[in-house]
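Researcher: Please generate the 3D structure of the following complex. Treat every line as part of one assembly.
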Amino acid sequence: MKEAPRLNLAHLPTPLQHLTSISEQAGRNVWVKRDDLTGFSVSGNKIRKLEYSLAKARAEGADVIVTCGGIQSNHCRATSILGAKLGFKVHLLLRGEEPEEIEGNLFLDQVAGAEISYFAKRYYQAHLDFIAEEICEKHRQAGEKPFFIPTGASDAVGVWGYVNAAEELKADFARLGIQPEHIVTATGSGGTQAGLTAGTLLQDMPVKVTGYAVCDDEAWFVNKVDTDIRDWAESYEIDLDLSSLKIAVRDDYIGEGYAIASKPIFDTITKVFRSESLLLDPVYSGKAFYGMLCDIESNELDGEGDIVFVHTGGAFGLFAQRQEWLKYSKIL
Ligand SMILES: *Cc1c(COP(=O)(O)O)cnc(C)c1O
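Model: Done. Output below.
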């Protein structure tokens, strides 16, 4: 096995907490892994992956980080903030027109001093590789050394973040004397699920990992997670039998599309906030939490064992959708 360099950036280990009220309502023990507490400005799941991606960038002598995502990308926000602190210039390639209101994650990108380029949605979706290469080439022409981090830092190096989190969860389970049957999380670019799936296999943990898709369908994510895991295993010469690899994706709760949440999602956010003081977001964790509750009820998350919800953060994205919350809650 090849070691991957790592920077210590996240507040770890994050707590694993029992959700008493939700468990009572659901008739099933639900725990939450508080990866919304990996930091404050850099909170969420991306920092675990960036500990490895940014270490690699530094080891390669890069001075500019180029990365990409949606306008309210949590990954871009985390990269902007950590990049600034580590002395990198950060250049974000964002999908969509520049909005009139600069809020949520996008506001923090600007406070952190990131350079931002906006691209029309269709053009971005069709030509992201080309756009990224063109921007990197511009930086090279300017005498800089760019390092490109793909969407969500979901690639071979990023997988390490949640391989590591699986090890942390194993220690949490041992400390609490529990043996959960399921680990569930939101899945958006696949890296979190890839790390958890590979990590639980590597740690021989008898637990099923399920990702709740927030954009693309099951087939797309199964392929993406599988590819990330195989790239990781190959790049780092991991001695792991991948023949028993199981990738479980639920794609019933995407709704109208990425970042578009319906009333049940906002109702779930409100309910969980009021009963557990847990702040979910409408793009990722709220959709996944809603999906989990529905799947407990229909026994799609089979068995009777405990369930661990990995809270991947995203709170700033809720602030960017406060009008939607107000609308669905009939306050407006
Ligand atoms: C990026 C993100 C996810 C999805 O994680 P992936 O590793 O990209 O699948 C989930 N929740 C939040 C809050 C995120 O920012």
